[in-house]
Design goal:
Blueprint lengths: L13 H13 L2 E2 H8 L3 H13 L3 E5 L7 E5 L4 E2 L5 E2 L6
Antiparallel strand pairs: 1-3, 2-3, 4-5
Helix pairs in contact: 1-3
Amino acid sequence: MADSDGEELSDLPPSAKLVFKVLEYNGPMTQKGIVEESMLSARTVRYALERLEDIDVVSEDVYFADARQNLYELSEPVEATADGGTDPACCDD
């Protein structure tokens, strides 16, 4: 799930974590939808998506309803942690 420099979701800026949570709760969305839901600027969302794609947490696909946009979704299922939260790089206990 992490790229060659070992970066993980927990190492990313808060904006990237928010975009991750928006996608986790809402499922696949366009960048415009993420901007509206997260109330972050379009530039911040673009940067967050780029960082999430770099660590292979988010994948990008064509949005068939409007081919000018892309559809973003989580790349792999997220496992639950012991405290009831979610952690994409779950437990190696």
